[in-house]
Design brief:
By secondary structure, the chain is α+β, with helices and mostly antiparallel strands. The protein is 29% helix and 30% strand. Helix 1 packs across helix 9 and helix 5 crosses helix 6.
């Protein structure tokens, strides 16, 4: 039986009704052993990476939704595969963790998503790479450059480059009082790079989340709508959603993106679109799996885990 390690945010703090890592673990435990890696115990010694681990079982529709057993320190290369699913911020500790996982990967354990790709590709910038519809965007920490951009487009959103789920996103208008002070506060006196994009109103048509796994595109998509008192459609901030079928006009372009992600060992990703524009590609800890499972006839969790099992088996077979 294959064993899968999971590095995630502290399991006691997740919401089992919406958390995608929980859903993956629930499906995967039917055919594999799940090992919970206590992320604050990961360390390197004599070119091997160790951590405290526990066998993990998760349960749906129960108040006590998880159980940890048989805790012990192990060499992480005892695992066949490690799923790195920690939420942003992508800060120094996140990057340092990827360096340690590089060592684990080079010694034979499959790590997904690829630690190198998690460093190489910023979620906001990789979205720009594939945005064929030229959503007006700049990345800057210069107050005058940002003000000029705001003046040109009148209404913009400003996003931190290393966060998720709408956190830290600001709406700026050229008519705002104290505009320069607001910009300067966001960029922390020209220290912090941000991404600035022309504002696209999603109140009527929403923004789309498309799940991609091992080069496959889920044909059911989540369209999210902002609450009345916010411009962000993120579910964390009270946004609503509906499930629909992916329009055929997007498939060719999304197939190109899916192939690129797979080639760079990004097993699981969430592509975000507003209208025809790709705004970002979430590769750290994409969500939305349970929303699709619970509102369609698909079992996306099982489909993802089937690909994961086959990929891991093939990876180790090819090393023999």
């Amino acid at each position: 039986m294959l064993n899968f390690g999971i590095i995630m945010d502290s399991i006691e703090h997740i919401n089992p009704e919406t958390d995608s890592t929980f859903s993956i673990a629930h499906s995967l435990q039917k055919k594999a052993k799940i090992i919970y890696i206590h992320s604050n115990t990961i360390y390197l010694s004599q070119n091997s990476v160790y951590a405290k681990t526990s066998e993990l079982k998760v349960y749906k529709n129960k108040k006590k939704f998880y159980k940890l057993n048989k805790s012990k320190k192990i060499d992480l290369n005892k695992l066949h595969c490690i799923l790195f699913r920690t939420d942003p911020p992508v800060d120094e500790n996140y990057i340092y963790t990827t360096y340690l996982l590089d060592i684990v990967e080079k010694k034979g354990t499959l790590v997904l998503n690829s630690p190198q790709s998690l460093r190489d590709f910023n979620e906001k910038i990789i979205g720009m790479k594939f945005n064929k519809n030229n959503l007006p965007t700049i990345i800057s920490r210069n107050i005058k450059q940002i003000k000029t951009f705001v003046k040109q487009y009148k209404k913009v959103v400003v996003k931190p480059l290393n966060m998720m789920a709408g956190e830290g996103i600001k709406l700026l208008k050229y008519t705002d009082t104290n505009l320069m002070e607001k910009i300067n506060e966001i960029i922390e006196n020209e220290v912090k790079f941000v991404i600035v994009q022309k504002f696209l109103d999603v109140s009527k048509k929403g923004d789309k989340r498309i799940i991609v796994y091992n080069g496959n595109i889920c044909k059911k998509i989540i369209t999210r709508y902002p609450p009345k008192d916010d411009f962000r459609a993120n579910l964390r901030y009270g946004g609503k959603f509906k499930i629909s079928t992916l329009p055929k006009k997007y498939i060719t372009h999304l197939d190109e993106i899916a192939a690129y992600l797979k080639a760079h060992r990004i097993f699981l990703a969430g592509i975000d679109m507003i209208g025809n524009c790709i705004t970002e590609i979430n590769i750290t800890s994409p969500t939305g799996i349970q929303q699709i499972d619970n509102n369609t006839k698909l079992n996306l969790s099982d489909d993802i885990c089937k690909e994961l099992l086959e990929l891991t088996k093939s990876y180790h077979d090819n090393k023999k």
